[in-house]
Amino acid sequence: MAVIIDGKEVAGRLRRELRDRVKALRDAGTVPCLAVILAGDNGASLSYVAAKEKALEEAGMDGRDFRLPEETTQAELLSLIAALNADPQVHGILVQLPLPSPIDAGPVIAAIDPAKDVDGFHPVSVGNLVLGRPGFLPCTPHGVLVLLREYGVPVSGAHAVVLGRSGIVGKPLANLLSRRDQNATVTLCHTGTRNMADICRQADILIAAVGKPGMIRGDMIKEGAAVIDVGVNRVPESGTKKGYRIRGDVDFETAAEKAGFITPVPGGVGPMTIAMLLENVVQAAETAGGIR
């Protein structure tokens, strides 16, 4: 039976450690502050934003909450970002995705000052990641790397298979794993990949980020592999309070019989995403305060 990678426990420990850095900043007169912009009333986005705001409060940081109506224009959103860029008391800016149509997320993300891009999505941040330069790392991919490290999963020389090529998880994670400090051999699979099941069976580290509940079964997993499930899917289920339950991209029961390590959903990668966001906000505040 696989070792369960407890992302909730690791994230909790990291968040407790961040409190000391936050205290040092506050004692020096700098209060780390994240501005969160939410346009529209997407249910999942509302839940994510609420969790982030709670985490900020627990860590002793400030949060500024901007809830914008569905009919907000791109020009109005860009104007708000410009104001936050110019505010020295704001250290990080997070625009919750997806944005309402017809707003184009590309120019919105590009308008954020790279020094405040704590999501790690700005083209400058992406370029730094690919080139191996210092900069903000995207929160979910960074969280995956930390979990592998915390549980002693060998990465250097390992064959890592990443399923999904999104700009938020798949692509940056493939780039991070192939950098010299990680040194994995990476295969990136997507909708055009042939014989995906065969490729999965070759993976020492298998990372699923495709958005299809239960897609990865135990018979697609190499004996002893580390399986990281990034999927968060709402699956309708009668009899539950919310009318659905959260499932990952991995069929946990069959996968756990083959894997050496596995993340549950929920409680695996999800908590790490918020912990890494807090890490980026603290890093931004330390840089602004001349501590880094």
Task: Give a written overview of the molecule.
The protein contains 10 helices and 11 strands. The protein folds into 2 domains: 29-114, Rossmann fold (3-Layer(aba) Sandwich), CATH 3.40.50.10860; 139-270, Rossmann fold, CATH 3.40.50.720. Helix 7 (170-178) links the parallel strand 5 and strand 6 (185-189). The strands form 3 sheets. The chain has a 6-stranded parallel beta sheet. Strands 3-2-4 form a 3-stranded parallel beta sheet, with helices on both faces. It has a two-stranded antiparallel sheet with strand order 9-10. The chain starts with a strand and ends with a helix. It is α/β, with parallel strands linked by helices and 292 residues long. It has helices at residues 7-27, 43-58, 74-85, 105-111, 123-131, 139-150, 170-178, 196-200, 252-256, 269-288, and strands at 3-4, 33-39, 62-68, 92-95, 159-163, 185-189, 205-208, 226-229, 233-236, 244-247, 261-262.
Trace the largest sheet across and list its strands.
Answer: 1-11-8-7-5-6
Name given to the CATH architecture of the largest domain: 3-Layer(aba) Sandwich
Strand residue percentage = 15-25%
Helix content: 25-40%
Average of per-residue pLDDT values: 95
**Helix/strand/pairing category:** alpha/beta
Low-confidence stretches: none
Can you identify the CATH class of the largest domain?
Alpha Beta
Quick one: overall form?
globular
Number of helices: 10
Q: Let me know the CATH homologous superfamily of the largest domain.
A: NAD(P)-binding Rossmann-like Domain
Largest sheet: 6 strands, parallel
Number of E strands: 11
As for the CATH topology of the largest domain, it is Rossmann fold
C-alpha termini separation: 43 Å
Q: N-to-C SSE series?
A: EHEHEHEHHHEHEHEEEEHEH
Number of domains: 2
Structural Rg: 19 Å
